Amino acid sequence: MPTYREFRLPDVGEGLVEAEIVTWKVKRGDAVKVNDVVVEIETAKSLVELPTPYAGVVADLLAAEGETIAVGTPFFVVDVDPAGAAQPSSPAATGTSVSDASLAEVEVPTGDEPIEPGLIGGPAPGGRTSVLVGYGPRESSGKRRSRKTAQAAVQGAMSTEPAPVAEPPLDELPSALPTPPPPEPDSNAHVTVLAKPPVRKLAKDLGVDLITVRPSGDGGVITRTDVEAAAAGGDAAGVDEGTSSPRSAAATWSREPGERETRISVKGVRKMTAQAMVSSAFTAPHVTEFLTVDVTRTVKLVERLKSHRDFADVRVSPLLVLARAMIIAIRRTPEINSTWNESAQEIVQKHYVNLGIAAATPRGLVVPNIKDADRMTLRELADALGELVATARSGKTQPAEMQHGTVTITNVGVFGVDAGTPIINPGESAIIAFGAIREQPWVVRGRVRPRLVATLALSFDHRVVDGAQGSHFLADVGAILSDPALALALS
Q1: Residue 69, SS3 per DSSP
Q2: Domains along the chain?
Q3: Which of 286, 404, 462, 472 is catalytic?
Q4: pLDDT tens column, 88-130
Q5: Contact of 10 with 71, CB cutoff 8 Å
C-alpha cells in the first residue's frame, strides 16, 4: 500500500517564519531521490534550493508558485513506497487522488518514529547526522497516533479537491498545480495571467507587473521577450498585431486609471532590508564623517597587481585595497569592530573581522560577509571578494553568508556617486561608503596637479564609537589609500 511522507517547510536560517515558493523543480508523478532539489524558495534573506528528505514518487504539491507559506506548513508529499502504489488499493491505480484514498490504508508518519537511514535528519554513514536546519530528527517515543488522528492529519495535509474518475496512472499525471485560465479581456481587478515560472521570476526580478504586459505567445502566454520589452520601457510585446511599428503613446495612456500604477508587494529580501534599515536608523545613533582622499597611488598599485603573476587570474580593484586598509585600521581602533548589546547594556568587541560587502541585486540589497577576513593574505582576500560578488549577482547568496558580520563596505562609486550617509548594518557599529574615483585638481607639494580622488563616508554607532575613535579610524584608512606603502608601517 502507499506510504506518504509530507515535507514541512523548514527553517533554513535563523528566525525564518515564512518563505515564498518561487519555482517547483518537480511535478506530480516525478520520481525523486534523497537530496534531489525539489523547490526553490525565497526567504527574507536569499533564494534557497530545498532538497527532499525522502525518496519515492511525488504524490502532491500543496503550495503554488508565488504563494507564501509559514515554517512548519506541509507543502510537498512523497509516496515512499511507489511499488505499493501500483496495487489496486493505491490512489493512482484506482483513479483517485491522494485525498480520495482510503484513509484507513494510508500510513501517516507521526514525527515520533525513527527516521530512515540516509534521509536528511537521519543517521548517515560514519555515525554523522545529516540535518536540514529546522527539519532534524526527533526523539522517538515508540508510540503512533491513533488511526483516527492519522486520518485527520492526511485530510488536513492533502488537497480535498476530487479528482476525475478516469485519472491516468501516476507516472502520467500532470502537475497538481492547474494552469490558470486566461484573463478576461475587460477585467482589471485580480487578473490571472499566463506565464511560465522562469518568465514570472524574470518579471519579479525586473520589477515588471505581469498584469500590465501584453502577451505575444500562443494562447495568450506571456513570453520572456514580452517581459524584457516591458522592462525596457516598451508596452507589452511592443508592437500591434499585424504591424511592425511600436504601439502609440495614445494607446498606452488610454487605459483605465487603475492600470496606470504598479503596486509591488514588498516581501522576501526587500521586506527584510526595509525592516532592518528602519530598525537600525531609529535604534543606533548614527554619526557620519567624510574624508576626501588622493587615491592615485592606490590605483597604480591595482594596475601593478593586475600584471603580477600571483594575481593574474583574479579580479583586482581599489575595493580590495580599501578592504585591506580597513582591516589594518581596525587593529588600531578596535571599537569600530564592536557591537552594542542592548539587553546586557554592554559593548561586545570582536577579535575577528567578518567583512561585509553591500551588494545590489535584482532581489534587493544583500550584505554577505567574508568570514575571518583579517586572517587572509591579500590574494586570499581578492579570491573571497570575487566569489562573494559572483554569488550575490547570481542570487545564490545563502543566509549563513549574511550572518555575523562585524563591519561593512558599500561601494557607491560603481554607480557614479561621490558620497552618502550609509545606514549601519544591524548588529554592527560601522560602515564605510566608497565614492567614485574621479580625476580632479589636487595640490601636491605646493603645485596643483591632476590626481585621482575619492570620498570616504564613515557612519558609526555613537553609543559604541566616540568621535575621536571614528576620526582616527577614518584617517588611518585614508592614509593607506593615499600611500599603500603605509600599510607596512601600520600593520
Answers
A1: strand
A2: 4-172 (2.40.50.100), 194-260 (4.10.320.10), 268-490 (3.30.559.10)
A3: 462
A4: 333 433 333 343 333 333 343 444 343 333 333 334 344 433 3
A5: yes
